[in-house]
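Reminder to self: tokens first, then the designed residues, so the page reads top to bottom the way the pipeline ran.
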């Protein structure tokens, strides 16, 4: 039995109290726990993060989902692809035919007529130029008047104008022929056919109307995060970002990134200077080349949802708890560098 101090023995009632041993042990545990909690709050570091949600996008427009349109008006005679089929650049998608099956033949006949007009106009120009030369010599010798020479020059100009008009008609006809001949619609790049928008063969389509939707293969991907406007002023290009992709198992510890599992690394690429309609700001995140590569596009395709945590300053656990309880902004960086 522990001996009590003499000044406590002066109080008989207090001296007669014998607290249970379990209560004493619990009191010691609570005291030690409070001391450890204070030490944790004061000295254990916590990494602040700015959280956001978003999706995987392609920054290059050529890597985004694109539509394949009809180049000319006509009927869909034959489809070469189906929904979900992979195609390479230049592979045929559909063949169109004009509503008039004899249009190309008539255009060919019209071309022959215009070429004949051009040949006749060229011959007329040569004859008129010869007459100008003869009239000049005759005018120099005084056989004809100066007016006859000027009239010959006018005829040359008229014939040249007719020749130019015939060539312009041929150029317009060639444009029409080229458009009507471009009736085989081909894939603009490697990809997968997502959806065929026309019903079936024989469907009438207009020029510029969508025939199919193509998703390019192996696109260059970035992550588009939407963050709160209170944090966007502290975000700078090059900052580290931790990402959790939809459908990819992950365990995130915001304050201790080293403990997280299943996360992928990125870095801030750019921050939009203006807010979206939702009031949030868009932050583009690139893959960090010095860390593990992101999952393949077959697992994380374009449009997949993402959660991200942009790493900020390191503070104590106590300060972070006090900041959250008081709804204060993140810690301002000690060394701020302006974006390039």
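Designed residues (340 positions):
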């Amino acid at each position: 039995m522990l001996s009590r101090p003499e000044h406590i023995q002066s109080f008989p009632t207090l001296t007669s109290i014998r607290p249970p041993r379990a209560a004493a042990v619990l009191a010691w545990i609570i005291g030690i726990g409070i001391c450890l909690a204070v030490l944790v709050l004061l000295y254990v570091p916590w990494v602040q993060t700015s959280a956001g949600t978003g999706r995987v996008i392609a920054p290059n427009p050529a890597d985004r989902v694109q539509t394949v349109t009809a180049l000319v008006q006509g009927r869909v005679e034959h489809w070469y692809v189906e929904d979900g089929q992979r195609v390479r650049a230049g592979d045929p998608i559909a063949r169109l035919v004009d509503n008039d099956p004899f249009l190309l033949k008539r255009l060919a006949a019209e071309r022959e007529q215009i070429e004949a007009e051009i040949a006749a106009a060229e011959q007329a120009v040569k004859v008129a130029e010869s007459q100008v030369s003869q009239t000049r010599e005759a005018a120099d010798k005084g056989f004809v008047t100066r007016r006859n020479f000027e009239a010959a020059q006018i005829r040359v100009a008229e014939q040249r104008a007719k020749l130019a008009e015939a060539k312009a008609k041929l150029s317009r006809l060639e444009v029409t022929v080229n458009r009507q001949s471009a009736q085989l619609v081909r894939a603009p790049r490697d990809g997968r056919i997502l959806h065929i928008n026309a019903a079936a063969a024989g469907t009438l389509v207009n020029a510029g109307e969508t025939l199919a939707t193509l998703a390019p293969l192996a696109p260059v991907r970035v992550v588009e995060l939407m963050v709160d406007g209170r944090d966007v002023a502290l975000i700078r290009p090059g900052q580290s970002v931790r990402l959790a992709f939809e459908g990819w198992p992950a365990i995130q510890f915001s304050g201790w990134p080293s403990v997280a599992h299943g996360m992928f690394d990125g870095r801030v690429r750019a921050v939009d200077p203006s807010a979206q309609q939702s009031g949030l700001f868009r932050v583009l995140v690139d893959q960090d080349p010095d860390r593990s590569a992101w999952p393949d596009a077959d697992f994380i395709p374009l449009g997949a949802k993402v959660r991200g945590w942009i790493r900020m300053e390191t503070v104590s656990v106590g300060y972070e708890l006090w900041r959250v309880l008081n709804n204060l902004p993140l810690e301002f960086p000690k060394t701020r560098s302006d974006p390039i």
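The chain has a mean pLDDT of 79.
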